[in-house]
User: Fold these one by one.
Assistant:
Number 1:
Amino acid sequence: MTWLSDLFETYEVNSERVGIKEKNRWGQEITLLPISHAYQNAQVEVTITPNGDLFSATVVPKDEAATLIPVTIDSAGRTSSPSPHGLHDGLQYVAGDYQEYGGKYKKENAHLMYLENLRAWCHSDYANARVKSILTYLEKGTLIKDLLDKQVLVAENNQLLAKWSADLGDKPPLFTVLVGDQFSTFIRFNVHELGSVDVPVWDDKQVMDDYVNYYTQKQIEEGEGLDYVTGKQMPLTENHPSKVRYGGDMAKLISGNDSTNFTYRGRFSDKNQVATIGYEVSQKAHNALKWLISRQGYTNDGRVFLVWSMEGVAIPTPEESTYDFFFDEEEDSILDHDTTAQKFAEVFRSALSGYQKKLAYESQIQLMILDSATKGRMGILYYQVLPQQLYFDRLENWHETCYWQHTGVWNKKNYQFFGAPSLKDIAETAYGSRGNEALIKNTIQQLYSCVVDGKDIPMNVVQSALRRVSNPVNREKWEWNKELSVACSVMNKHYKFKKGEKSVALDREITDRNYLFGRLLAVADVLEERALMKAGVKRNTNAKRYMNTFSMRPLSTWKIIQENLIPYQIRLKDTSHFYQKELDEIGSKIVVENNDYGDAPLNGKYLLGYYSQREALINYKNNTSDTEEK
């Protein structure tokens, strides 16, 4: 249970953050939950006076609905069986007059169960004055009546309306935030004290601590056992938390609630023969995992990719592009379009060094991938712990070898960076951005191992990227240009073509047949593109239209492309001499130096030659006049 132990220790190391709200890198509010607590969306807020009288009642806006609530082992994962939460809860639990207004209990009287539990807390050694005020009010049994008087709930003929229909007029505020009917309304409570700055009950650290102490003591009184994670005697649990990845996630990492259908495979007769886990350990480990996922996890189609250190320091992750390392706004100065490859490499290494300085030398990096097999079961697909130095060495190696120039638009700004694309971009380049979601996330996982374990990119990914990029027809220009640069990163990494070099510039000394044929195609592409622009025509060039065939039969296809170039050379007049000179120079290398002018298929190196030659021609054209070309 290494992963469980590591998560438990992560929670302990970051215990000072428990219950404190913070924001993740995307600006979302997150919290490291106290044990025996969970988040729940509330629709109505009821405020009580210290004497236990109603002060106010309001509908909670959707953007303020998330509420930290005390829970029990059973209530945290409740389904159809009634199991009350510790304080804030649904209408059937908190309203004594629930049945008077049309409510029906499915099994036991949920309100009496709720009151019994709340009284037990208020009569314990860890009673809280604010909670006692709420109990005093609820014992009056008039909650729904009071909410009707405050026009928060709506009734007809003394019965709560299940749904609001358009013929009744404008929709009341409550019906704009409810998912179900009025009987499903979730109530959160607050206590208003005159002359003091109100801290909401659900954010009150003292209320949290009092409940944790009360519920922990209650567990101890019910008995202890051996926790297999810490090796200590403590209260055990068989019911482990769900909602690990997001609020509605019912898949559990640890579960043994099915005693039939070969669950134990004949090895055990009881689930406790496998392992027993302490309630506190389970709560802390799962809460740490939830916090880490919301703080820094990457999710694709339900599959979570997570990297963390126990110190709680944000760690760069394998799936990120080199550009993602400079996500923060203060780094915008190095992300402009004129940033050089050398500058980017220097800043990248500096950023990696900055992350490492925040960690102790002996720190370890935990890596986890998890996904759900069914709605109720989740599995850990990958788990590894690496020394931080080894992790950062492999990360740096990936970004320096899976290297190319990438341009695009982000937040309505042009960007350019040199380095590795994101793993998602590689997967979508190989299989399409609108491809099978399962295939995309499985490919990302394959590539994840390439980064972390130093493996080569799988051949199926290399070949798929080559095939797709060699067929630019029926795709937007910007989309194909992005895929081309991503594919060049893959080919550069796979063939170790420019190992150690931080340059994508054209190399006129390379005599590799594939590279040279790619250069030929680029010259033909730019020549025709210039002629079409001059004529005001917008369409794909013959070079792009024949690109797929060219990659499979370069010699025979080149003859067709070359013949089709003649009208465009005539249209460009004297300017065409510049391009013809390039074609002659490249052709002479193929024939004379390589003596290899066969029609065998090209490998991915031809994309590198195509990209570099095309960039050289475009940059030359942008920096010179037609007169200079002559």
Note: Confidence is low (pLDDT under 50) at residues 328-335, 625-630.
Number 2:
Amino acid sequence: MYKSYTFLIALLFTTTLLQAQQQALAPKREFRGVWVATVQNIDWPSKPVAGVTSDQQKQELVQLLDEHQQTGINAIMLQIRPSADAFYARGREEWSMFLTGKQGQAPNPFYDPLDFAILEAHKRGMELHAWFNPYRATNDLDNSHTSATHITRTHPEWFFTYGGKKYFNPGLPEVRQYIIQVIMDVVRNYDIDGVHFDDYFYPYPGKEPLPDSATYQLYGQEFADIDDWRRNNVDTLIHTLSDSIHAEKSYVKFGISPFGIWRNKAQDPRGSESNGLSGYSALFADARKWAQQGWVDYVNPQVYFPFYYPAAPYEKLVDWWSTNAYGKHLYIGQAVYRAMEDREGWRDKQQLPNQMRYLRHNPSVQGSVFFSSKSLTDNLAGFRDSLQYNFYQYPALPPVMTWLDSVPPPAPQNLREKKFLFFNSNKKTRLEWDSPKESDSSQVYGYVIYRFADNEPLALHNPANIIKISFDHTLTSFTDEGMAPGHTYRYVVTTIDRLKNESTTANALIKKIK
């Protein structure tokens, strides 16, 4: 009897612990992003060759988005400007060779990839962040890869050559103005959710010095150190662009994914316990300052290292960024592409799941972004399965950015059931509701639908009860086919605005299944 009692206590404790762990693994608010790289056709579209049509490219993108939706991803970082070129029509730069095989050549039959991607992402309840490479202008020095009207041809004085590629010279005021115009074309002309930069600012250092000393002599005389001048050039771009984006569309997020190390503690007491390359010194990217000054809405450092890696330990870097985000969102960049490497740390196929557990225990981390799309859909080391069936088992809304908007939209009204005439309504339920009154409806971007079984409390914080997240403000009905006989269900519906602030609920609807 004593052993049975002990066993029951142990079972109850284990069950409670598992429930607590499951709850910890299921936040309702979490950024779940993936980088979709187009440079060199890493992820999409498949390498342009004769016979690949616009429709095939669309089908590839739809399949990619479907797979990420099934995995639980809620944000797509789509690379739309890999090298001073465009995956979109309404702008000032050439069509990308990675889209059609030839720079400057439009898709045939014509379509606008960015319009298409935004539409399809939003259908699936995913944000679309437009990913730009600000300074890289070519991927090689082969003139046949650039059109006669490419910006490197029309303004050769704006560029320097380094490491076999051409780069915009960040020290030139006219270069900064041009890059801001390029990005603002997209902000104005497309329904994007965010503007995103990765870690490529000044080029990664090679053996030769950067060829910008003449520009420094012209524009950097107030700086005693050329490195400080270079950092100021990047700072000026980031600050001006941030102001421009938010002045044009206050809801568009601006985020940057810097190299995983800002500075090492050996160089700066404010730095991290690491010994690797420094984004501050090598790339002249002062990401800590950008967060501190409020110029970015999120920081997404590329912590592409395993636990306890001497030069750049994952746990130390996550902890460091969490205390240096200055109230802005922190999303950790994770290296799915490394999951099959035969190297220390990566031989452990639990490396990435353990990284997920670690960052989720840090309340200052609001999510993850994975590189890259193909590595995730290929399920390297089974990590996609870990997300789909464990970490991302339930849907999540993106975390709110209160500094951009903290006011929730008005609630929907008059939730009701529509009776069916031609089939047994016990097998499915058709929900209908009214949008808020017309004077308030402009604040509504979409809806969240919850279902609670039997005597479950109406706990809106539990994502297990979410059955639909919609980014469609015109949606005022939903058919639920996930019910089981012998249960009583309660439904509630809320609205969300563009920044995913959530309203209170409409009235609850009760449905009993015989």
Note: The chain has 14 helices and 17 strands.
